[in-house]
Amino acid sequence: MSKPNLKPTSNPTLQNPNPNPSSSSSSIVPPRRDQPHVSRAPDLAVPLLPLLSLARPPPTFPSSPPSSTNLLHFPIAAPPPPPAHAHVLALGFAPSVVVSGALLTAYAKCRLLGHARKVFDEMPVRDVLAWTALVHGYSTSGDLVSACKLFDQMPSRNTISWTALIGGLNRNGEPYEALDMFRKMMYQCVRPDQFTFSSTLCACAATASLTQGKQIHGYVLRSKFNPNSIVLSSLVDMYSKCGDLLRARWVFELTHYSKRDTVLWNTIISALGHHGHGKEAIKLFDEMVKCGRKPDANTFVVLLTSCSHSGLVEEGVRFFESMAKIHGVVRQEDHYVCLVDLLGRNGRFKEAMEWLAKEPCRSSARARNALLGACRVHGNVELGKQVAEQLIELEPNSSAKYVLLSNMYAEDGNWEHVEKLRGLMEESQVRKERASSWI
């Protein structure tokens, strides 16, 4: 990555011939993390190196890696150390627990786990934050074996450590293991926090563990824990996915208006739509808007999905058209996929195909998968074959369309075409994918 072309007057600190080392360095990085030019942080530290070598290490370097982390601009394939890291090593600051911990966290969040592990192994003293950062890095990247092994080696663990592993297990499709880890955490009398509850409730939802979800909810109430909107949304989602819509609505209704953020509104609208109560979902959306809560892109995803599941085609199309005009929400691929699904589920294939011919649907495999599923529901084999052929061009190695089309042929009694499809899968070395879901 080339260095930005900084003008001499871009930073008043650099114009001062004799700045104070500590105040200058700390003023460069932290206040700019939320600015578009935050990527300059490591490079802005360079002019201060001569001064830093004569002064006590200021907080410049611990601040630089996190700003790099937010940008995720580190190259993925075996990169050289980033500028801030190189300067740290050159000045001999690496042994510092604070500096090394900041570097480790930056590498872990950027999924440069080889670099993160190297920093970790070279640390003379490792605090719980360093251990946790690496556990989180492994679990985020999907390396659960390394994450669990490192977690077992930790000399001490806190709430954040347990939550990092529980969340990692849940995100990587191991909800039962996540629940088991939560039980162990409780046995060791470690107090959960908001993120622990949220991750564990998501695991309950994924496994339809209503009993355990109720127990966690009971613990929240008995301990007089003040749940934030994330935990409340997780409770609504858990009850909904466990089939208890009444309790999901109860949690929402008992939540004060001040805590009903957009995420919570989206969750209850999604819950109603999932259970086929599309009209009630629309009523809640109208109430949400009247309360002054601005809908976001996810709001319209769950709203369109609710309309699709309840056969409310005209209402769904109306919401799709009102997104940008009334609510100022930019349409994304997810919304077009929902629209195609809405039209396809209700047999309006001509309109669905018209949308597929437009951008961004023209190159969207997800939109075609949605229509292919609708073709199967309605037994439209001819259109299904046409859509499947388009999908094969877009995603030649994905098995989803082969399986859907094969099922359509089987349901139509066309076993000859089923055998041909299986032969084509073997010839193309396409394997059936493992079942998965996202929460």
Low-confidence stretches: 1-80, 433-439
Rounded to an integer in angstroms, the radius of gyration calculated over CA atoms is: 26 Å
Strand proportion, as a percent range, falls in under 5%
Number of helices: 26
SSE string, helix = H, strand = E?
HHHHHHHHHHHHHHHHHHHHHHHHHH
Task: Please tell me the CATH architecture of the domain at 157-259 by its name.
Answer: Alpha Horseshoe
Outline the biggest β-sheet. Answer: none
Number of DSSP E strands: 0
CATH superfamily of the domain at 157-259: Tetratricopeptide repeat domain
Q: What structural class do the secondary elements suggest?
A: mainly alpha
What is the straight-line distance between the termini?
Answer: 36 Å
How is this structure best described in words?
The structure is a single chain. This protein has 439 residues and is mainly α. Among the domains are: 60-71 and 81-155, no CATH class; 157-259, Tetratricopeptide repeat domain (Serine Threonine Protein Phosphatase 5, Tetratricopeptide repeat, Alpha Horseshoe). It is built from 26 helices and no strands. The protein has helices at residues 12-15, 21-28, 41-44, 49-52, 60-71, 83-91, 97-109, 113-122, 128-141, 144-153, 159-171, 175-187, 194-207, 210-222, 229-241, 245-253, 262-274, 278-290, 297-310, 313-327, 333-345, 349-356, 365-378, 381-394, 400-411, 415-427. Helix 20 (313-327) runs antiparallel to helix 21 (333-345). The longest helix is centred in the C-terminal third of the chain and has 15 residues, at 313-327. The two termini are 36 Å apart.
